Amino acid sequence: MHSIVIPISIRMLTHNQMRLIMTVIGIAIAFFLAAAQIGLMVGWINTNSAIIKHAGVDIWVMAEETRAFEYGTAIPRHRIQQVASIPGVAWAEGLLTSWSLWQHPHGERINVEIIGLDRSLVGGPWMLLDGATENVIQPKTVIVDELHQKLLGVYNLGDEAEMQGSRAIIGGFSKGVRTFTALPFIFTSINNALDYSPSYNDEEITYVLARIAPNIDANDVRNRIIKEINNIEVLTTDEFAERSVKYWMLETGVGITVIITALLGLLVGAVIMSQTLFAITQDHIANYATLLALGFHQKTLRQIVLAQSLSLGGLGIIIGSILFFAACNASARSPIPLETTPTVSMGLIAFSLLCCIAASWFSIRAIFKLDPVTVFHG
Amino acid sequence: MKSIMACQGISKSYGSGDILERVLKRVDLEFFEGQASVLVGPSGSGKTTLLSILGCLLAPSEGQLLIASEAVNFSDKSSLTEVRRQKLGFIFQHAQLLPFLTIEENLAIVGRNAGMDDDDIKQRLDGLLYRLELKAMRYKHPAQLSGGQRQRVAIARALLHRPSIVLADEPTAALDWNTGKTVVELLLEQARMEKAVLVVVTHDTRMLPLFDRILSIADGILSEQAQTAAAENIFYTQP
């Protein structure tokens, strides 16, 4: 039977090449539309939790009821030693986050978010375009992202600005370190950060970052920390990332808008894709009716329609994916990146193929409902 | 003569109650091996409905259809498909060849669908294309053929898998008189050669003398006319 299905499917599709090209382009654009909307959401989520995930630690210790990374509040600096002394903790250092006011070299002012790094520079930028992360150890030295050069009015290493009356010298430019709040991140040392952060005193930090010793259960260590230290909350990296994302996604109107837009993109993409495939089957309805009358099994026709839907869908998805990855690449250095993960990509492809199968199912139903008199009179 | 197909009390109605429309009324009919019948009647008389039932495409409301002495089970779609692909050959009004396949492919898929092996298909295809003078058209697409050539291909397609019954619905409707006559003569010649039952629906009464039997249908009631009467009829209608 396959000796009939494949040649008929292919010949039916390639007979009208312009129609074939338009169909594949239609599906590719529909897939791209859905992928782009989902990609925006993934990029948004990744931006939300990027610093947490890139820090490469196991545990985050913070003030109780910290809603998101950006909203950490002060905890005593000696918590670092307390955490480090808990059995099972291999390493612990601090991290400080605060809001400050950046003053351009030519006087303009904007709000920024300071990230103060401890000795190991954990929680710092993960990709550097120019300079070195170690430079932040130098007094009054900061690293900003290339995306915010214009916003901050600094373009070269050594350029200077001011925060809270203190100098800020550019010691490096990071790459792809976006901020969700639209306030640029300013990386520096904890000591420098304290100069720029009026709400913190010298004995305060925001987070204690810890790594667990090998072969030790993180939950056990977490429970020990909670038991030993009062008025703090302890989360694993994944839990903290999830909390930050949930806060921005679900507790702020912005996140809901992103989700709805992504779902609408997916829905519109699915409808366009299904409609396009349905239309190409309808174009050949008279031919299917003839095959049915000539004694071709319904199963054979189902296989032909399914093979066409999957091959057209597959081609469209491949082209749509190429467009999407090109767009991801193009947007990589923009404030709103398109990103994906293997799971999201596979899920989107599976969903799109399901749409193809659904479209073929509806198409074939239309064929099997044909009046036999129609078959006779063409 | 060997009986190939029989209608026993076949009726077909649409709707119910006050709006019941009886399209066919108790049709009893038997078709024999190699016999060519023509079905005539005015528009809406039930010709295509009867042809659809004979082609196992439409279930009768009452009565039964026997093919090779076996009652056709209209409730089993799979067995209907099997009957169509093994025992029936169709010729449609507009040939309805698949436009995306060459003539050879249009014929070959019918053979493959009927389970014929490649050698048999090739032999059969060569023979039919030769007999129907279509050898030069073998690798052309339907759009490259004239209406008459397309109907000749449709004849070849209907006969390729050696069906015992060939049904044709107004095969000459889209053709001029001379081309139509040639097509019908070819159809009759090939069907007789294959010893297939041939049932042709037509509006063209000039074709009637070419057939063995003339079946007339009016208001759903079928009657058989004597061939001589039909011959006289043709005398008055031919231009």
Explain briefly what this protein structure is.
The complex is a heterodimer of chains A (378) and B (239). Chain A is α+β, with helices and mostly antiparallel strands.
Please give a handful of descriptors for the protein shown:
heterodimer, A: 378 residues, alpha+beta, two-stranded antiparallel ribbon, 12 helices, elongated, B: 239 residues, alpha/beta, Rossmann fold, six-stranded mixed β-sheet, 7 helices
Fold and architecture overview:
- The complex is a heterodimer of chains A (about 375) and B (about 240).
- Chain A contains 12 helices and 12 strands.
- Chain A has about 375 residues and is of the alpha+beta class.
- Chain A folds into 2 domains: about 170 residues, no CATH class; about 170 residues, no CATH class.
- In chain A, strands 1, 3, 4, 5, 6, 7, 8, 9, 11 and 12 form a 10-stranded mixed beta sheet that branches. Chain A has a two-stranded antiparallel sheet with strand order 2-10.
- In chain A, strand 7 and strand 8 form a beta hairpin.
- Chain A is elongated and about 90 Å long.
- Chain B is α/β, with parallel strands linked by helices and about 240 residues long.
- Chain B has a single domain, classed as 3-Layer(aba) Sandwich (Rossmann fold).
- Chain B has a 6-stranded mixed beta sheet with strand order 6-7-8-3-9-10, sandwiched between helices.
- Chain B is globular.
- The C terminus of chain B is likely disordered.
- The chains are: A alpha+beta (about 375), B alpha/beta (about 240).
| Beta-strand percentage range of chain A | 15-25%
State the shape of chain B.
globular
Query: Which structural class matches the secondary elements of chain B?
Result: alpha/beta
Number of helices of chain A: 12
Count of distinct structural domains of chain A: 2
**What's the total number of strands of chain A?**
12
Question: Secondary-structure element sequence of chain B?
Answer: EEEHEEHEHHHEHEEEH
Largest sheet of chain B: 6 strands, mixed
CATH architecture of chain B: 3-Layer(aba) Sandwich
**Could you give a short account of the major beta sheet of chain A?**
10 strands, mixed
Number of strands of chain B: 10
Alpha-beta content class of chain A: alpha+beta
Q: Determine Rg of chain A (CA atoms, Å).
A: 28 Å
- Binned, the helix content of chain B reads 25-40%
- The backbone outline of chain A, from C-alpha atoms, is elongated
Low-confidence stretches of chain B: 234-239
Helical run tally of chain B: 7
What assembly state would you assign to the polypeptide chains in this entry? Answer: heterodimer
Largest interface, with counts of residues having CB < 8 Å to the other chain, equals:
A-B, 25 and 33 residues
